[in-house]
Amino acid sequence: MNDISSVNRRLSYNLVALHTFDLVARHGNFTGAAETLGLTQSAVSQKIKGLETELGIALFRREHRGVSLTNEGGRLLNVVRPAMTQMGNSVSSLMERKSRPRVRISADFAFSSFWLLPRLSHLRAELGDEIEIQILAAQVPPDDYGDDCDIKIHVAPRSSMVDGDVMLLQERVTAVSSPAYLEDHGPVAASAKLLDCHLLSLSKPASAEWQTWQGWFDRLGIAGERSKNYISFNNYDMVVQSAVAGDGIALGWLGLIDNLLADGRLVQVTGDVVTSDAGYVMSRDYSSRLRGPKLVFEWIAAHSAGLP
Length: 308
Description:
Blueprint: H1 2-27, H2 30-37, H3 41-55, E1 60-63, E2 66-69, H4 71-99, E3 102-107, H5 109-127, E4 132-137, E5 151-157, E6 166-177, H6 179-185, E7 199-202, H7 213-219, E8 230-233, H8 236-244, E9 249-253, H9 258-262, E10 267-284, H10 291-304
Helix pairs in contact: 1-2, 1-3, 1-4, 2-3
């Protein structure tokens, strides 16, 4: 226990001493470093002497008008200065987040494009411009919080939810196309006939949980070989744009594409809607004391209430 305390005291001392060393090297004298630190020149000199004694090397050559680095001091500075700069930037970033909270939301492309973006102006109007919102669209959620994100919204099974998670939107998926596509190719009498149609697919990473055409057909008990006339995308926004353009039939997530169905740009091709235990689950780091993520989390949860 005493050894650990000794190491901690030395580490604390060395951080201060190394910061002082960096400043002396920047100014080329003890006087400038002392003014920056609000210390006396003698105190700065003592810190440098203590650091040199502990390291067993001379870091500076004392000259008539200041100091210059020794070879050993130059090598140490090459390590210390980037570290001090990085620590300073990190502290500044944290202080900036405290004064103007920044909330990073990780969500997949579909939820970002069709749910978050249409509501972003309302969120900012209600919570105020003092909260900076960053939407980080990614098909697969980050492994952890911290610098990557404050809030995660991704498709996950209900069984994976933990205390505090919110199911924003349960997965309800149907086949959709543009009216023009059905006019050109004729109506689809039953979902089994979709196997012969031009299908638009969203490629699925191995760890993703969302519905695919194969899973959709399986849920309906439809067996058979899928048509080779299909196009695959890695972004759901492109899938929907392609469907609106009349390129084929896509899977539509109800709750995301409702506006496109309401204004007639997309129509349901058959009456079948496949539901699952999965859905858009929102989670956040409850150990964080930052106020911004809590406010945004609660706003999104409140505005998703009542969705199917």
